[in-house]
Amino acid sequence: MSQAVIFDMDGVICHTNPFHSLAFKEFFAKRDLHPTEEEFASHMYGKSNSYIMSHFFGRKIEGQELLDLEDEKESLFREIYQHHVDPITGFLEFFHGLKENGFKTGVATSAPQANLDLIAGKLDLFPHFGSALASENVTKHKPDPEVYLKSAANLQVDPENCLVFEDSFSGITAGLNAGMKVVAVLSSHTKAELPESHFYINDYREITQDKVKSLLAI
Fold first, then answer.
1. What does pTM read for this prediction?
2. How far apart are CA 189 and CA 212, in angstroms?
3. pLDDT digit of tens for each residue in the chain (218 aa)?
4. Distance of alpha carbon 155 from alpha carbon 209, whole angstroms
5. How many whole angstroms separate alpha carbon 206 and alpha carbon 139?
6. How distant is the alpha carbon of residue 52 from its chain centre?
7. Segments in 15-90 forming alpha helices (H)
8. Phi-psi region of 11 (alpha: psi -120 to 50; beta: other; left: phi over 0)
């Protein structure tokens, strides 16, 4: 029976949120907007760019305007983050151990493909992914389960045999809505701020391959 482990990217593979904050601060400052860190925590982490920009601009941002603004902000992020790509503690050892234990692996991010290319490229993850999906690959964003259901289909694994690693409310909800087991990575939020998950970690030193097997057996 095939089993798979699917990772979100931001806050799960790398702790990118502080760098997204820097990019958004620069992006909004150009428009004389100055969100606080508390506002970012509530309205940025784990949210789509459409939601973030619509919230802070106070009007619906969509269509070509959204594409143009998103490209500007994400380009700022990549410019800032390209020199700081660093996986969450223990991730690489844990990730490579999955293949040794017979698990298929994938990534399912709400970030644009260029961000995935930067991070997964720097960490040499693409050769090990059986599925790699970014925002361009779906029509409905998290908490909709589309990206996880597509990942399961790509990996040829039933959703109930997939374990998701997520760090945000919308991402965890997407994994649960897909009928998958979910490990919450507490990089951006506390346990109390997230939906009830099957397991919680601060970093990858706190989970073993045997734990993955036991979670998938639930």
1. 0.92
2. 22
3. 899 999 999 999 999 989 998 999 999 999 999 998 889 888 887 778 889 999 999 999 999 999 999 999 999 999 999 999 999 999 999 999 999 999 999 999 999 999 999 999 999 999 999 999 999 999 998 999 999 999 999 999 999 999 999 999 999 999 999 999 999 999 989 999 999 999 999 999 999 999 999 999 98
4. 19
5. 34
6. 16
7. 17-29, 37-43, 49-57, 63-81
8. left
Report the side by side order of strands in the sheet with 4-7.
131-133, 104-108, 4-7, 162-166, 181-185, 199-201
Fill in the amino acid letter for 176: L
| Closest of 82, 76, 94 to residue 25, by C-alpha | 76
